[in-house]
Task: inverse folding
């Protein structure tokens, strides 16, 4: 008898969920005007599902989620068709936008509850969930690009952004979700750039930004969405939203999302993506969580990445983030490099002094190990790219770090490779003016002394005792930092002109092409030094240089 009662209860719950979900579908027709029936039916579905997970095991959870997703798409389609037919001058009001997006939020909230209750069953429609959140992200991006629906974009951000992320977090955080499933979900959302279709003409790209694209994105299937370039920027915006709310991610989910940071850099190298990131603005929720502001996509992305850093700082996933920052320090793409350096500077400003000091010492060791095999005069060398990153970091960090680097890599260092690393730093704008007056004066004296030692002994055979491996290194060093050192005219005297005459003569007599090229570079830097001294380039000895 007890068994029959349980079976009857299971049948009642199953039938109730099916009937109420169908009623909810019917009530949602025509824009969801039957609000009371709509609310009651779907709340009833959730209530029945919460009674006992064992009793509802026969219910197709995936079908319920698909029904909610279809309602979300229909609501957005209704808005897309209405707003796409509007005249450019007919601005969509915030009130009208709320009427459209409030039902969408209701469907999303219910989907979040279902996924949180039954993550394993929900994973069966994982790709449909991924497509749904991507469509919402793409819808937001397209609204932000059209003047007459910008208010709608603000309302959409306010009502849907957090709830959309909650839908993903419900899956990512679940203890029933395996590591493989988390990665599968993220892989379906954040697809490698090479997977996107290359068969997109300029006209199609332009059309994707037109009004009709609001309708077009809602027609994408799970299969076609994988290679749809129209969703490419939407994926970046969605990633930015997820890491913005990364404080709500559990440890395993943090590991998973951190593993996709390299994907972000890869996709940012796409010309369409990085141009949009630099030029576009998006509505975002401000720090208070109450006001919507318009912010550049670049700034919003940087802020979200910094938020992720804070949230990972006390997490085991921090080591993976730290590895990512180190591996990306020399990223060849200008935008990716700028983003990485912003994150490095943020870390330096907020990490403990001991951690920062240890990292700086490691970077100095790295530079000196490189200088033994690479010339500091090649701008594209790994050494120069490293020193460029270090100089950027020092310029935006406490001045004490500059003194620490100088101490490690100044010409007084015992390491044989330190002088070349020091020259590479000077060529990349090492902030000597951040040093104390005493250390700065010592640096100035050393650079000038090296310069005069070089030009006075230029006609002699190269000495094995020279600290530098690069011919003319003192000339390059002085030229690079002459303005910072504020060297007086009297210190750069007529000996420099005599050196130029000797250099030109050697250039003419040299048979080796590589040597002639180096003499030419040294001459160029020396003339740059002379040009900053009116007393030199107007004196009588200049005649000897010219003739």
Result:
């Amino acid at each position: 008898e007890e068994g029959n009662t349980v079976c009857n209860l299971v049948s009642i719950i199953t039938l109730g969920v099916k009937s109420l979900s169908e009623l909810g579908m019917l009530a949602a027709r025509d824009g969801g005007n039957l609000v009371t029936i709509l609310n009651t039916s779907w709340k009833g579905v959730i209530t029945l599902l919460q009674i006992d997970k064992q009793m509802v095991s026969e219910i197709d959870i995936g079908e319920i989620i698909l029904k909610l997703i279809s309602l979300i798409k229909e609501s957005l389609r209704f808005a897309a068709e209405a707003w796409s037919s509007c005249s450019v001058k007919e601005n969509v009001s915030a009130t009208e936008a709320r009427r459209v997006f409030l039902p969408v939020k209701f469907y999303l909230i219910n989907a979040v509850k279902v996924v949180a209750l039954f993550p394993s069953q929900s994973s069966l429609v994982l790709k449909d969930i991924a497509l749904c959140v991507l469509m919402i992200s793409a819808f937001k991006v397209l609204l932000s690009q059209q003047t007459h629906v910008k208010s709608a974009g603000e309302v959409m951000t306010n009502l849907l952004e957090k709830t959309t992320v909650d839908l993903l977090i419900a899956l990512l955080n679940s203890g029933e979700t395996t590591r493989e499933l988390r990665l599968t979900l993220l892989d379906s959302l954040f697809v490698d750039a090479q997977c996107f279709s290359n068969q997109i003409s300029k006209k199609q790209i332009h059309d994707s930004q037109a009004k009709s694209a609001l309708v077009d994105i809602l027609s994408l299937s799970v299969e076609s969405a994988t290679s749809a370039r129209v969703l490419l920027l939407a994926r970046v915006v969605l990633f930015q939203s997820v890491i913005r709310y990364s404080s709500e991610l559990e440890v395993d989910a943090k590991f998973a999302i951190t593993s996709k940071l390299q994907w972000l850099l890869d996709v940012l190298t796409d010309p369409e993506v990085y141009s949009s990131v630099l030029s576009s603005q998006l509505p975002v929720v401000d720090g208070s969580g109450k006001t919507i502001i318009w912010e550049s996509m670049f700034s919003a992305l940087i802020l979200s990445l910094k938020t992720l850093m804070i949230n990972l700082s006390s997490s085991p996933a921090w080591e993976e983030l730290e590895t990512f920052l180190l591996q990306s320090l020399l990223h060849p793409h200008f935008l990716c490099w700028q983003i990485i350096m912003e994150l490095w500077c943020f870390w330096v400003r907020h990490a403990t002094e001991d951690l920062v000091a240890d990292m700086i010492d490691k970077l100095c060791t790295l530079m000196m190990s490189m200088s033994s095999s690479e010339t500091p005069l090649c701008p594209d060398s790994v050494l120069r790219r490293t020193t460029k990153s270090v100089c950027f970091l020092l310029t935006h960090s406490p001045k004490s770090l500059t003194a620490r680097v100088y101490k490690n890599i100044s010409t007084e260092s015992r390491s044989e490779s330190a002088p070349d690393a020091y020259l590479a730093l000077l060529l990349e704008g090492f902030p000597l003016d951040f040093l104390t007056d005493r250390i700065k004066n010592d640096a100035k004296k050393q650079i000038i002394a090296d310069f005069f030692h070089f030009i006075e002994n230029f006609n002699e055979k190269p000495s094995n005792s020279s600290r530098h491996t690069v011919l003319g290194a003192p000339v390059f060093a002085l030229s690079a930092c002459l303005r910072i050192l504020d060297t007086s005219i009297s210190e750069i005297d007529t000996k420099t002109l005599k050196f130029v005459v000797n250099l030109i003569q050697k250039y003419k007599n040299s048979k080796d092409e590589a040597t002639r090229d180096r003499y030419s570079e040294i001459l160029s830097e020396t003339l740059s030094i002379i040009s900053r001294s009116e007393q030199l380039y107007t004196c009588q000895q200049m005649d000897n240089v010219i003739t």
